Amino acid sequence: MASKIDLNCDMGESFGRYSLGSDAEIVRYVTSANIACGFHAGDPLVMSATVALAAAAGVSIGAHPGYPDLQGFGRRNMELSPAEVEALVLYQVGALAGFARAAGVELVHVKPHGALYNQAAKDRSLAKAIARGVARFSRKLILVGLAGSRLVDAAIDAGLPTASEGFADRAYNPDGSLRPRSLPGAVYADPAAAAAQAVSLAQQGIPITAGSQTHYVPVDTLCIHGDTPGAAAFARAVRAALEEAGIEVRGLAQV
Amino acid sequence: MASKIDLNCDMGESFGRYSLGSDAEIVRYVTSANIACGFHAGDPLVMSATVALAAAAGVSIGAHPGYPDLQGFGRRNMELSPAEVEALVLYQVGALAGFARAAGVELVHVKPHGALYNQAAKDRSLAKAIARGVARFSRKLILVGLAGSRLVDAAIDAGLPTASEGFADRAYNPDGSLRPRSLPGAVYADPAAAAAQAVSLAQQGIPITAGSQTHYVPVDTLCIHGDTPGAAAFARAVRAALEEAGIEVRGLAQV
Amino acid sequence: MASKIDLNCDMGESFGRYSLGSDAEIVRYVTSANIACGFHAGDPLVMSATVALAAAAGVSIGAHPGYPDLQGFGRRNMELSPAEVEALVLYQVGALAGFARAAGVELVHVKPHGALYNQAAKDRSLAKAIARGVARFSRKLILVGLAGSRLVDAAIDAGLPTASEGFADRAYNPDGSLRPRSLPGAVYADPAAAAAQAVSLAQQGIPITAGSQTHYVPVDTLCIHGDTPGAAAFARAVRAALEEAGIEVRGLAQV
Amino acid sequence: MASKIDLNCDMGESFGRYSLGSDAEIVRYVTSANIACGFHAGDPLVMSATVALAAAAGVSIGAHPGYPDLQGFGRRNMELSPAEVEALVLYQVGALAGFARAAGVELVHVKPHGALYNQAAKDRSLAKAIARGVARFSRKLILVGLAGSRLVDAAIDAGLPTASEGFADRAYNPDGSLRPRSLPGAVYADPAAAAAQAVSLAQQGIPITAGSQTHYVPVDTLCIHGDTPGAAAFARAVRAALEEAGIEVRGLAQV
Fold first, then answer.
1. Does the predicted model carry a pTM greater than 0.90?
2. What is A4-254's CATH number?
């Protein structure tokens, strides 16, 4: 039974004149901030302010690198060479680390964004490229990936600490994969349902059922979505439920 | 009489399919590389390769941040707020520092590019913003500016080590400013002329004449242009002339 | 006494994941839409949808070209060569005209955006470059500029129809210039104040006072800001006041 | 036996400070120019100059739209929604058409670039999206696609005139597909080999062999690569061989 878990949220996804998310509210409920690095979202001013916000709240800081696709918000699949991916991860991690250093805080983790995260869950070569990009910067950075994914495997192979991510507000298939967003019921509308699943993921992990057998994939961190309406209500509900269940909510470095 | 000088050159200014400069040749003659950071030129793959090239050649590595203006190659004046400039300098320095760290070498200096460099030579507020961006990353980084410029003043005020730059292949006005490129004779076509001026700048500095009085502004580093035809011939001529004159050519950290 | 006036509003300034403005509401009150063309804001999907929205509402369509500066929302001054400006205006006008053509509507006007508009109000060479860019596409396009500005002069010199713009919600200086936003009282917070000024601008124009003399610069179109909180309330108030005063509110082609 | 053929070449693929291709030379040998539209390459100034160059040479002008991926030169596969593709094609066609109109010449054709072209050769939904984007601008534009591809099918379905493209300097597989560039012999190094294949493609088409049967897919236009070393020599050799064989080389509108 896990007695501790991390809550992470994507932050700093505004850009210039464009505002997105409710970082100032969400930061009160999470323990890790994945901060956009200027490729799929974010700009230098936004990064500076977001690092300061997270640091002031005592929230762990991570880089949230994405594809160079602001228009698609990094959610459109792209086919880049492994060398390109490795270099763009290293670039974005370095850029964010500069702001962390300026703020006097440590960079703790790296979580790829959107299509980069999703493609790397299944594509071994892409996953390895991401891991190399992170490892070239530092072997102390925790690489966050979908629980049970190629990305987690690649992180382990590269000698990186890793964290397996679960989703409180998403339905899982019996094989442990996420129910596609296109299907009904894929995303929970009710904060209470998300809160209940958060507790179960923290305590047991993701259930994988094959025939009559069920085993559980442990989860180190739960993703809180920050750019949806009612995001803060979900975050509050999840956090409260975890604490009520006696689960310690703390940053990845302490999990 | 200066007995040592640094030779610096802008490098890594290719982008994707587009090649620019003759870095592999020039790197043999210089002691410092100002590496583009992806805003006015350069991309993560180019940065990775250029850092490796410079490191292998034993050349000091510096960040070469510019305006976010790839189409204008960072040469078009822009009016950004001081906060924007501070943040974009910190961003680019961090990004380049990541590649340096990955290559096991130190980041030694920062030299702003193009319009950012030129505007900061005269604009105190802009110069201070650049210096703050660099200082937030590290107070050990050497900030390179036009000799006698506001940027050098701002670096000193910010407690940064600084290096004053001169140009071997550009004519100077009697007041020590550079003769505008639009005027005839502003840029030397003859490598021998550049070589001679390099020696004189290293030994005496830039002459400033007021009335019958001349004093000299010392120069710590000479800029070698890398993206012009015949750039390598200039670099070779300048380097040879300096060594013949008994001037030690070495990186900024050693000047 | 003017008996008719146009009401224009910037539209289509969303980008990818980022939403801005309340176009669907504002479009009910205005007679001309200045549609962003993908440089300072807007993307092809947004442009397509915005042209369809304006066409369905019977609102005249214009191109709203800006500097290539998404991060600065086209509001940061840039120094581009006249040839660059001419070409970027022609590019953006052509792109928007393609969507208008696809929707079966005419492109009626061009209004530069942000820093391009403001710099062209004072800079004759820039204003002429914009006018050339428009004229190369068509001499029937109406070029909208600040009343009394260089841009209006340049449009006339280039043989273009032109429209002089006034601002209902901005205070004017005695010399007819806009009171800078940095000063108190520069922007009216009260829709009623904007509505009253709209009527006065439509009926009399902008008062220019020199000594004891006052003359009036006529205004053909009034700008309604769409991206501020309460924008729709302002638009509704201005429209209602104009109609109550017996001023016909109609598109530029009919003014 | 075909007695006429078009020769097309990608042009205007420079960007800002970056030069690519030898347009001024190549334009003498081809009859159609596919001009980059600012997404994968090209910028407004380059487009203006390239349209002028092609118009002066009497070469037909076409739009060459690509993915919004300057760094990847539009050669990296992306997964965009059909609506996004339709809109980005319409955008780029409109932008280029503006320059053509300004130069007093007709826009004759559209040829997608790089990954957009290659993915559309196989992906029916993507091909249809491109065809819709073109058709929304004009049903008179000729859509150029790989001979035998989904893109040609989609153009026909959309009621567009279409042109089937062959490659003089690329080896074909027995099934009519192009031999992948990764395999030896995929690209001819010898201009004479390209010239011979050009004549055979023009006269017979692409041979498709199944068992003992061979049939031929006709070719309306041949692609001349402009950004490779020796491109002009290939273009000259191909053009000369076609004329020697009595094949008329002329623009797509006349083929």
1. yes
2. 3.20.20.370
